């Protein structure tokens, strides 16, 4: 495990094992005889990270986040339609 973390993240062995211990204590991973598995789904992590970003950087304002994201970007018609559909579903 530490070789992968060294290669991918630049973590030394002690850092890797400290992170495994801390994540295990928070019950985000399970460490069973050196077999490490996630206890949360990737979608849950994405949702948490997105909410944390909006709260921290955009003062909990989704419109401010969207404005910053779209500042220099043009949406395709398909993207705009998908976003409209998401908004309609979220406001029901």
Order of helices and strands: HHEEHHH
Beta-strand residue fraction? 5-15%
Helical fraction: 55-70%
**How many beta strands in the DSSP annotation?**
2
* SS-based class: mainly alpha
- Whole-number radius of gyration? 19 Å
Task: Summarize this entry quickly.
This protein is mainly alpha-helical and 92 residues long. It has 2 domains: 2-38, no CATH class; 42-90, no CATH class.
How does this model look, in words?
The chain has helices at 2-9, 13-25, 42-57, 62-70, 77-90; strands spanning 29-32, 35-38. The protein is mainly alpha-helical and 92 residues long. The chain folds into two domains: 2-38, no CATH class; 42-90, no CATH class. The protein has a two-stranded antiparallel sheet with strand order 1-2. A hairpin with a 2-residue loop joins β1 (29-32) and β2. α1 packs across α2. The N and C termini lie far apart (46 Å).
Itemize the secondary structure elements and their pairings:
Elements: H1 2-9, H2 13-25, E1 29-32, E2 35-38, H3 42-57, H4 62-70, H5 77-90
Keywords: DNA-binding, Transcription, Transcription regulation
GO molecular function: DNA binding
GO biological process, one term: negative regulation of DNA-templated transcription
Which descriptors would you attach to this protein?
transcription; 2 domains; two-stranded antiparallel sheet; 92 residues; elongated; mainly alpha; transcription regulation; DNA-binding; WH_DNA-bd_sf
